[in-house]
Every structure is written in C-alpha cells, then in structure tokens.
C-alpha cells in the first residue's frame, strides 16, 4: 500500500527478571511489541520460556550479553567459567560494563564461544531465534562481536548472525500522514 510504513517494535532484556518477562508479555498481548530479545544468561530465562511457549506471533532474538551492570542482580556466562575466563570478574560474573570488559582484556574467541552458547541455550528452551542484537553495545569495546555474519563467527564455527527481524508479519503497519 502506497504511503504505508512498517514500524518494528522490540523489547529487550526478556529473561532478566520475572517482572520484565510479565511486562513484555503484556505489551505483546496488547499488540505493542512483536519482537522480543532474550537474555539467555539470566535467572528468569526459564520463566520466559514458559510464558512465551507457543507464541508464534512473536519474533524472538538472542540479546547477546557479555556484561552484568546491576549491583544486586548479576549474571555470568552460559559457558563454564574456565572456558571464558577473560569475560568474567573475580566473583565469576560478567564485568559490569563493556568498558570494564575491554580493560580486563576480554578475548574475541571467548566472546564468540559465549555468544554461541547463549544462542544454543535459547534454542534448547524452545525459542525459535530469528535475529541477534547486543546488550549495552559490546561491539564498541570488543571489536568484531557485532558483525559475526561477515565471517568472524563462521570462522569460529558459530551460527550467530546479526540480522534484524524485518519479517513483515512482525511489523506494525501504519499509513503515513
């Protein structure tokens, strides 16, 4: 239709808490959100899997998470800590910021291992993952994580691809005025 535009709405941090999961679900139920980015590393991801089970009206993506910024709620990697030691602090959690991750000397190979593990975890929970995005723009501090689709991920045996979910059935159609 001439003059129609598509608006892609997305909620991120699903799986970070039960409260966030329910708020995102409510927004989906009201037709506000159609794309949901999931944090495989967080404690409420199983809750999210239960809440969103069978929702084929939602486009799910992996919210690639390499830091844990909160004071009271922290999370660490899906991979065993000994496989990704440069991505974690002394307590076994992700560094608080992407800047701290860079300062600690995080390795790109470890980041790709962890990102693939996050994708695998979400698939194991039954999510049909259709896109990838980043939590707090890790690529700005660890170059190469964003553009896995241009070869870096494939060279490392990863299926991560930073492709947005532009499927038209998930876009809200509005007529331009």
Account of the 3D structure:
Its cofactor is Mg(2+). InterPro entries: Glyco_hydro/deAcase_b/a-brl (IPR011330), YdjC-like (IPR006879). This is ChbG/HpnK family deacetylase. The chain has 177 residues and is of the alpha/beta class. The protein has a single domain (4-170), classed as Glycoside hydrolase/deacetylase (TIM Barrel, Alpha-Beta Barrel). Helices cover 27% and strands 16% of the residues. It contains five helices and six strands. A four-stranded parallel beta sheet has the order 2-3-4-5, covered by helices on one side. Strands 1-6 form a two-stranded antiparallel ribbon. Strand 3, helix 2 and strand 4 form a beta-alpha-beta unit. Helix 1 runs parallel beside helix 2 (45-52).
The succession of helices and strands, N to C, reads EEHEHEHHEHE
Q: Rough shape?
A: globular
Supply the CATH class: Alpha Beta
Oligomer: single chain
Number of strands: 6
Mean pLDDT: 83
Q: How would a textbook summarize the main sheet?
A: 4 strands, parallel
| Number of discrete domains | 1
State the CATH architecture.
Alpha-Beta Barrel
Structural class: alpha/beta
The helix tally amounts to 5
Helix content: 25-40%
Segments where pLDDT lies below 50 for 5+ residues?
148-154, 161-177
Kindly report the CATH topology: TIM Barrel
- Neighbour order of strands in the largest sheet: 2-3-4-5
Within CATH, the superfamily carries the name Glycoside hydrolase/deacetylase
Q: Strand content of the residues, in percent?
A: 15-25%
How widely separated are the two ends?
Answer: 13 Å
Write down the Rg: 17 Å
């Amino acid at each position: 239709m001439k003059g129609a535009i598509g608006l892609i709405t997305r909620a991120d941090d699903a799986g970070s808490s039960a409260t966030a999961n329910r708020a995102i679900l409510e927004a989906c139920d009201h037709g506000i959100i159609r794309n949901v980015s999931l944090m495989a590393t967080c404690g409420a991801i199983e809750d999210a899997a239960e809440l969103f089970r069978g929702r084929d009206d939602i486009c799910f993506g992996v919210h690639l998470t390499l830091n844990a910024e909160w004071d009271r709620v922290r999370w660490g990697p899906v991979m065993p800590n000994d496989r990704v030691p440069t991505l974690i602090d002394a307590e076994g959690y992700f560094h608080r910021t992407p800047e701290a991750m860079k300062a600690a000397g995080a390795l790109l190979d470890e980041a790709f291992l962890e990102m693939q593990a996050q994708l695998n975890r979400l698939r194991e929970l039954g999510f049909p993952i259709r896109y990838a995005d980043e939590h707090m723009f890790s690529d700005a501090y660890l170059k190469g994580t964003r553009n896995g689709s241009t070869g870096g991920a494939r060279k490392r045996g990863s299926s991560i691809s930073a492709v947005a979910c532009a499927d038209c059935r998930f876009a809200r159609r509005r007529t331009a005025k």
